[in-house]
Description:
This protein is mainly alpha-helical. It has helices spanning about 25-30, 45-55, 60-70, 75-80, 80-159.
Amino acid sequence: MTESAAPAPHPSRVSDLFRRTPIQRLEELRHRKPIQTDQMRVGLNGRIGLVITSVVGTMWAAYIFTVLALISLPAAIGSHDVIILISWIAQTFLQLVLLPIIIVGQNIQGAASDKRAAETYKDAESILQECLQLQAHLEAQDKILDDVLSHLHQAEAAA
């Protein structure tokens, strides 16, 4: 004769099996939007740098710098010295003209990065809302399961 183990008792509530722990980051997400580039706090030197960057970092500045660089081109060519011509190309034209063009590109990349951050935040916020709905759905199911467990316990007690 084999001994049969008594059936394991049924939990009386779903919360006996699972305890939900709230995630603190969710509250932060509800109250804080992503920081954009123009929201960064900078001191006096930072503001001066931003003004200079916004002026120099335009294609108009690149066009003006191109004209300025071309003014000295005839003198560089007229010198008939290869070193002076190479020096004009490297130190005058490339540095003077490429600087604002690079800044324009960086500004475009920064704006794209800000847009991606905002879109990612919206995606996370949507997922959060979906998860909250899912959590409410699960809580409703827990109530139904609690009722089923209650009936099961009553039936076992009556038997």
